[in-house]
């Protein structure tokens, strides 16, 4: 069975790395990557025998630099810079192999001596090493759209959808979308869930399609995620630093790919993003990860995506009502607005803390408090 990816070598490497993790379910990974167990174990065995060279036609192993030859060192540095012109000296240094490595300032001097223009700025040495991060992969995913941009034919725009694992900085999704609608986001999330499993929590900003258009409500996307058992959170309004890792990822994406790229169509844009995402996850050293790539710290989730959603269950004897198309229910003769995002969903009516007050609950979240002591 063939690998269904435009870059099969990257898919093999990602699959093998995840399969080698402790307690990894190889059969489940085969299903998610859509490969047969026979093919999967062939690449696992080749990787164990030959390392990365067993997965690819040409070696992608890091260049080595004997410290005894300055000509060899300079050649290696220049070749690395040509391959990764947006990477700084610290990242290039980590690719020079093992042994006695030159100081990053030496690499800067080599590049300047040969007239190479440095595309990274002095402010890109990040302070991410001191940022808070969740303890394990899939504890929290951060999701957002990178600012949209016009394609070369000027008739369409690309809306990059990004999804990042908080612990490992692993880019789970980088999709060239034609719009920012809920259906588009949901389709991309299903692809991610099928390959990597479900996270415990997922956070996004407050605007559509993530959040409800009315304060305190629930969007249709949020309701769907909650039914999957995913806790949903939102960043504070006007505080993009809440999703600081994702904002930093967007800066890197812009600097290394979008700044000079000119894509004619969404398909071309997606192909370029796929190549860059593979490089970011599998090769690009990350300072906050000890100059290791994100894949070195990521492990797929054991929580499998259910192809069919289960019905929402409430306590026996509770009053349960179905939300109407316009987000309303009728309680005690009064038409009460709940949330447009919950249209078609079942909610529970529970007594409030005071007489004459009820709580409207969806799964485990109180959506509305209704005080019947007040006039309509």
Write out key terms for the chains shown.
single chain, 376 residues, alpha+beta, 10 helices, 32% helix
Kindly summarize this structure in a few lines.
The chain has 376 residues and is of the alpha+beta class. The protein has ten helices and twelve strands. Strand 10 and strand 11 form a beta hairpin.
Annotate the secondary structure layout.
Elements lengths: L7 H12 L6 H8 L3 H14 L19 H14 L5 H6 L9 H10 L27 E5 L3 E2 L6 E9 L5 E7 L4 H15 L4 E4 L15 H8 L3 E4 L9 H15 L7 H17 L36 E4 L5 E4 L2 E4 L8 E6 L5 E6 L2 E7 L5
Parallel strand pairs: 1-5, 5-6
Antiparallel strand pairs: 1-3, 2-3, 3-4, 7-10, 8-9, 10-11, 11-12
Biggest β-sheet, characterized?
6 strands, mixed
Instruction: Please mark out the parts with pLDDT under 50 across 5 or more consecutive residues, or reply none.
Output: 65-69, 121-130
Radius of gyration: 25 Å
C-alpha geometry: elongated
- Structural classification: alpha+beta
Distance from first to last alpha carbon: 63 Å
Structure description:
- This protein is of the alpha+beta class.
- Helix content is 32%, strand content 16%.
- The protein contains 10 helices and 12 strands.
- It has helices at 8-19, 26-33, 37-50, 70-83, 89-94, 104-113, 182-196, 220-227, 244-258, 266-282; strands at 141-145, 149-150, 157-165, 171-177, 201-204, 231-234, 319-322, 328-331, 334-337, 346-351, 357-362, 365-371.
- The strands form 3 sheets. Strands 1, 2, 3, 4, 5 and 6 form a 6-stranded mixed β-sheet that branches.
- A hairpin with a 2-residue loop joins strand 11 (357-362) and strand 12 (365-371).
- It is elongated and about 85 Å long.
- The N and C termini lie far apart (63 Å).
- Mean pLDDT is 83; it is low at 65-69 and 121-130.
